[in-house]
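dumping the sequnces here before i forget
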Amino acid sequence: MFLIFALITLLGALSVAFQKNLVVAGLCMVITFFGVAGLYLLLANPVAAALQIIVYSGAIVVLLLFVIMLLSAHEEEDAQSVHSVQRWGSVAAALALAAGVVKVVLSSGFLRGAASGPAPANMNLERVGTALFAEHLVAFEAVGLLLLAAMIGAVTLVKKDL
Amino acid sequence: MELLARILHISPQTFWMIAKVIIVFAGPLTLAAILTWVERRGSAMIQDRIGPNRALLFGRWRLLGLPQLAADGIKFFMKEDLVAEEANNTLFWLAPLMAFVPAMMGFAVIPFGRDFTEAGRTYSLSLLDPGNGMGMLYPMAIGAVAVYGILTASWSSNNKWSILGGMRASAQMVSYEIGMSLAVIAIFMTTGGYDPHQIVAAQAKTWNVFPHIFGFLVFFTCMFAETNRLPFDFAEGESEIVAGFHTEYGSMKFALLQLSEYVHMVTAAALIVTLYFGGWQIPGMAHPPVLLSIGAFVVKWVFFCWVFIWIRWTIPRFRFDQLMFLGWKVMLPLSMGNLLVHAYFMHRWG
Amino acid sequence: MAVIVKKVELNWVDRTYVIPVAMGMFITMKHFLKQLFTRSRKRFTVQYPDWKREPAPGYRGLHELKRFEDGAIKCVACFMCAEACPARCITIEADEFGDLNRTQGFQEKRPAVFKIDMLRCIYCGMCEEACPKDAIWLRSDYEQASYDRLSMQFGKWDLMNTYAERDGKARITQDPTPTVPRPPLQS
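..and the predicted 3d for all of it:
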């Protein structure tokens, strides 16, 4: 099961990277998100899976595709001369990120605990709520504030006469 | 149950699962097929016409025009399967499936009858058993994904009308989803849970429509937007953009797209019944027998399907700016206010 | 032509949409129920091949060439109708007959061929207007269709017999020998 979802995720992500057609790439991204949602399900966290689908595949990628279609990138344009510095730089950055993630996951205490301890209970909305509003209230509010600021910034950037 | 399972040499759980899968697939599909007939005859009656009544079964039985369904099906299968030359072939073929599969999936969590216990086992009448952790989030997630069918269909047919339809549909669905979610969250809050079984059980005394009347209005309207039904059928808009996202579609692919719209409608009606009209509950009856509870659900369900059709033939299409205005400036504040008022009351007395 | 668009100001009740929509739904439901419980004979729709609509009295349908009581054709082959016809669909060949003449109260001419091309005819009724003898009528039959062009050429006998069954007259395929003087036309 894990292998299936992981494969879906990986293949989706790879085809996002290699697909020349923007819209098809966007659809592949949806597949990736579905794979991730499946992985969440396997981690006994159906709430995160549902939210992943609602928020990411349901709203964000739709907006993304919307913008792509609005800009009418219908015929596939050839990428303008890719600078090799850019290319190698991006590869290096991706590798560094991947290494960092692997390092963090491997060194986290949770991994050692999970192997021996009891399987965590099913996550549900109540526990998500408690986690957000009781345990991580400050972080939640900070994120909310940040998003609000970003939204206002975007509006001021776009709108000429307020 | 046990007996049937023993005859088929499978365990009762497996038998029940298979039975439920069959019911959950066949029920909405049958209802959707019948709805296409109801739509035509009903609309005809509303407009003082008669509607299709000429198709005969074996050249003999007229049956109020019901054989029209079979005739249409045969016609769709026999038709030439055209794909536009400039279309993106793969996506063009995938799009009807992408529209149809989510439409069929949405019904899985809806409890369509009271749980019953037999030989020490509890059988729940919904495809996903209660306590699966997804609850009402599941149909919302599926509903969110449903837009891809339309989007893909519109983009892959490489037609300007189609793209216009698809863009309108996606913008509309995204903007109505928020209001809808907030309306549903208010229900989660007053119920104290988000499992459909819990929500139905909590409506034993009063149905949710009465305390959540504004939430109901918002949710109901958003359901029209989500299913692309008439006051908000911007994806099709046949008087403006030919046939919108399925302009280039013909034969069985078109039939699938069309059918998925009807299945969406069926699922939306079931959601409305579950969330606001007490699911299988019968007013004034604490523990109705199982069959009666299923009957109550079906009656409400069919009624709301009819309401979808009824409204379609009553209200003309909105303008797109009106749609956006309604979505962002009316529905969103209304459902937000509904949520806040309920939160206040719960804080005060709950 | 300028069209003055009257801007409708909605009051707050209408702007909620809820009550107007409910009212609209009430109206459509009324129509639905009314139509549902009307017997199909009483509905507006005429289910055509099964039932036929009775045209109004002045209806201009298929032509009939009128005849006298003894079966002789009223037409005197004066070509007025052919001249009046805007679609030029009437073809007449005149035929003189008998030694009897006008002073004895008989017509001297009759059409040997009277042909109307029903594919061309526009059912305007000009022939009926033009006819001095009231010999051609446009009547109620409106079902002229056939599988080939030739059968849409209606000849003299076709036209004389178009309404024979309906009027309870015998079909005729031959001009009877005129014996009785014709009464002068009332007009």
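The longest helix of chain B spans residues 12-46.
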